[in-house]
Hints:
Layout: E1 3-7, H1 16-22, E2 24-27, H2 32-37, E3 43-50, E4 53-62, E5 67-68, E6 82-90, E7 105-106, E8 114-116, H3 120-132, E9 134-135, H4 150-159, H5 164-187, H6 193-208, E10 215-217, E11 224-226, E12 239-243, H7 254-263, E13 269-273, E14 277-282, H8 291-294, E15 295-300, H9 317-324
Parallel strand pairs: 1-3, 12-13
Antiparallel strand pairs: 1-8, 2-6, 3-4, 4-6, 4-7, 5-6, 6-9, 10-11, 11-12, 13-14, 14-15
Helix pairs in contact: 4-5, 5-6
Amino acid sequence: MNFWQVSAGQGTRNYSDIFLKFGIMLIGRSSASFSKGAKVGDVVILKRPHHKAWRIVAAGHITGEYEQLEQFEDVEGWNIQHCRKVEWVCPPMDEEQPARRKAIDMKGLAMGTFIRVNQKDPIDRAMQLLGEGEKQESEEIPPPANRISDEYLVESLIANWLRPADAETVIQAIRHVRRLASWYARYGRELSEHEIRTFLIVPVLLALGWSEQKIKIEWNYTDISLFHEVFKKGAEPDVILESKRLSAGLGYAERQLKRYADEHPSCHILVASNGTRYQLYDKKDDCKWNLKKHLDAYLNLLNLKDRHPYLTNVGGAPDLFKSLMPR
């Protein structure tokens, strides 16, 4: 039996929830060690950077052979569809904080997406976790979402009461954003969130029918706020949007969105966007916000789909645009 470690992301992207939810490990570029070297029955340590040390999120036994799954070609904007199934075991719940699992910080883990582990300390900690931890129940991996064309999106927008000419304007804005985002990916290393908002997000909002008089930039410590009527002092927004850099994972916007939700309880729609990808949260009623529960739609302008790539209860491009239109 061999021991391996796999990274659950880096920077502002964290994939550990997905690994645990579906009983898998994913990487962006397959290697001989991942596809052939690692055997069924081998032990894998799931790591996540935490402060200056690595955090062990879980440990598990590999249960499946290598496969490539289209469902995971867009995870926080990254293509990590190279997959092995794993039966994960998580640290026990913290008795003082029942909603959280105990942290296992481990400096002995090495850099790398998927590499072999030979150090005694991480191996001992992994075996201890496998013996004392809690088995993670996994869900069945859903079928891939359906790709949709620009023309399909046009028809969807028209079906939701947008005039045909206005629907064409939306598609033109999307194509402009695609071209500009492609240029930024090559040459825009110093791209700021201000430019993301100005050149990638606002043009799409204008095309959807939001007038400049109903859009406020950096109002009341929000990135973008959208109002039902022409803005007047004392008005509360219909939609609040948090913008991120092109390279950022949208999951990390949830902390900021939670603050917006607390400060503006009458706002029922929250959005996170990096200019090409959008996550929309819709409270729909007067209950308290739960961002995990209220994730309603996902959109990738570079890869339109009819629903979220791997969450079957979350809508896709047509649903997001329908919710983002002025009401």
